[in-house]
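Ligand: adenosine-5'-triphosphate. Inputs:
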Amino acid sequence: MFKTFLIKYGEIGIKGKNRYLFEEALVRQIRRALEPVDGQFRVYREQGRIYIDAEGLYDFEETVEALQRVFGIVGICPVMKMEDKGLEELGNDVIEFLSTVYDMKQQTFKIDTRRARKDYPIESMEVNAYLGGRVLDAFPGVSVDVHRPELMVHVEIREKIYIYSKIIPGPGGMPVGTNGKAMLLLSGGIDSPVAGYMIAKRGVKLDATYFHAPPYTSERAKQKVVDLAKQVARYSGPIDLHVVNFTDIQLYIYDRCPHDELTIIMRRYMMKIAEYFAKETNCLSLVTGESIGQVASQTMQSLAATNEVCTIPVFRPLIGFDKQDIVDISEKIGTYETSILPFEDCCTIFVAKHPVTKPNINAIKRSEQKLAEKIDKLVQTAIETTETIRIE
Ligand code: ATP
Ligand code: MG
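Predicted complex:
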């Protein structure tokens, strides 16, 4: 029965020019999210509001689900939109609306009118009182509760009149594209897809880098990362995924450096290469799924050693999260099932039995000197042979 949605978004802190950019980006992201949905939609801004009109038949559930992945949306309100034909007609419309959507037996309700069109001849309070009376007459058993109504009936008087009562929660956050772009280090694990989701939620567009180590890691492990990128892209929009062939670098480090420092040195090269692609593609930061103390390579000392090679900011949105908190988000966003598929990861293969947990940066740098002969060439080759996959 609903042909129109009113989209609510957070307004705090978005004034002037920023507000315009925010709304433009939100409209763009809504259009993108609705593209794969069955139906024709018109998305438009009107008087500081965003509306979606469904033209013809469409799938309500699918539409709402798609909108629930658009960052920046705080609430999705299915509305009845009608012409202004005077107060008495409006009363009829409200009654029709309520009897179609609810069974109207013992509910308490409240009418909340907003008069955005100031030339409307009757004040909001009067409209509330009139409509409240009509509803009480129409549905025996219902009563008014202005403090905690079970049913809040919103009536917005604009060029047209909008009636709605349900506000389906959106994901919140900011529309992707309003806060620049970041390079996500995406592995096949649970954490990095969640980290990407969280950064995208702040309005940041994403690209991603994955370090692949064939034949130690299989095509299926790579496919898993592609699948995870697709799932993140449902929220973030298209992602360029750089698949770096990391095998020769790993083998060389394995050959030349102390094995207890392997993971740290490897991670330093991952960061360097990811930073190269970040700069190449206008990303302003790196994003990882690291969390303090989760494993040996994520102690404070290890994070410091890894971070030391970077010249752009590294964001670690999960830094203070327990594993279970991260799992909960991954289940919510739908990446968990893919993340737990049992394919090998390039870090687990070369991992030492007793990795250092308190690496000393100077010691690490001394070890890295043993790589001087070939490492630049290997990094160069890894960059040149990187495959970039466009994830829609
Ligand atoms: P995740 O679940 O994200 O794989 P993890 O708990 O397995 O994390 P690590 O393997 O130590 O932790 O990786 C820490 C972070 O480093 C990851 O969250 C990811 O951002 C990055 N990373 C690790 N391995 C790779 C890889 N093969 N390719 C790209 N990034 C990686
Ligand atoms: Mg991992």
